[in-house]
Amino acid sequence: MNLSVNIAGVTLKNPVTVASGTFGSGMEYGEFVDLNRLGAVTTKGVANVPWPGNATPRIAETCGGMMNAIGLQNPGLATFKERDLKFLADYDTKIIVNVCGRSKEDYIDAVEQLADTNADLLEINISCPNVKEGGIAFGQNPKMAEAITAAVKKVAKQPVIMKLSPNVTDITEMARAVEAGGADAVSLINTLTGMKIDVERRTFAVANKTGGLSGPAIKPVAVRMVYQVANAISLPIIGMGGIRTAEDALEFLMVGASAVAVGTANFVNPYATIEVIDGIAAYMERHGIQDIKELIGCVK
C-alpha cells in the first residue's frame, strides 16, 4: 500500500503534516508522537528577527473551535536555526518551515537565511499585515500576493508553498495570483477572522479584539475552498482547517488536496496526527485501494 505523496518534487512518506503554530517544531510533542511517522513537520512561523507577539489574553475557546491572536510570536531565525532545525535534523521526516514577514524585504531576508539549511520546503504565510501598505495582509490583495510570491521565488533555494487566507471574496483569485507569481504549491486555509466578547467583563475575549478562528467549525468552509482552488490551478495543495479524524482528512484529499495538515486538534488530542495516518491506511485497506493517489481529487 502506497501512502506517499509528492509536493513540488519533495516526497512525503504519507500525506499528513501539522498546521503551523499548533505543534511548535515537534519538541513539545515528542513524548506523544513519533515524529518519524509524520509525512512532514511544519514549524511555527518564524521571521528574520524576533517578534514579541500580541498583548494577552491571546486565546479564547469558541463553540466548535478556538480563536487565537498570538501575533506570530517567534524567537527569530538565528535561534530557530540553532534550536529547531537542529532538533528536527535527527528525525526521518520532511521539514516545512513557515515564514512570516512585515515587508517584502523581511520575507526575502528570511528566505535567504534558510537557503543553506535542512529545510525541505518553505511555507510563506501571507496573512501577515504589510506595514508599508497600512497593515493590509499580503494575502488579501492579488497583486500583492503575486509580487511577494515572485520576490520569494527569486531567492528561494527550496520549493515555495504559499499559504492562502480565507478572508477574501474569491479564494481562486488569490490562488491564481500566487500561481502566476511562480509558487510551487499552496496551502489553505489559514484562520477565519472572528470576534468573541467576554460578557462578564464586558470587553473583548482577546486583547487584539479580533482573532483567527480555527477548529472543526471552519472545516466545511475549508473543504469548499480547497475544492475550488483544486479546480482553478494546477499546483499541489496542502489542505487544512478543522481536521480531527481520518474521515476529515479524506474529505480534503478527495476534493483535490495532495496532503493535509492537522492543527487545532493537536491541542485537544496530541495523538491526532498518528490517528489520522493510521485511519487513512485502514480506510484504504478496507476499500482495496493500493495507492493514495487513487483518492486525491476523486470527487469532481
Give the topology.
Elements: E1 5-7, E2 10-12, E3 16-18, E4 40-42, E5 59-62, E6 65-68, H1 77-88, E7 94-99, H2 104-113, E8 121-125, H3 142-155, E9 160-163, H4 171-180, E10 185-188, E11 192-195, E12 197-198, E13 203-204, E14 210-214, H5 219-230, E15 237-240, H6 246-254, E16 259-262, H7 265-268, H8 272-286
Parallel strand pairs: 3-16, 4-7, 7-8, 8-9, 9-10, 10-15, 15-16
Antiparallel strand pairs: 1-2, 5-6, 6-14, 11-14, 12-13
Note down, in words, how this protein is organized.
- This protein is an alpha/beta fold.
- It has a single domain, classed as Alpha-Beta Barrel (TIM Barrel).
- Helices cover 29% and strands 20% of the residues.
- The chain is built from eight helices and 16 strands.
- The chain has an eight-stranded parallel sheet with strand order 3-16-15-10-9-8-7-4. It has a four-stranded antiparallel sheet with strand order 5-6-14-11, with no helix packed on it.
- α2 links the parallel β7 and β8.
- α3 packs parallel to α4 and α6 packs across α8.
- The two termini are 24 Å apart.
- The mean pLDDT is 96.
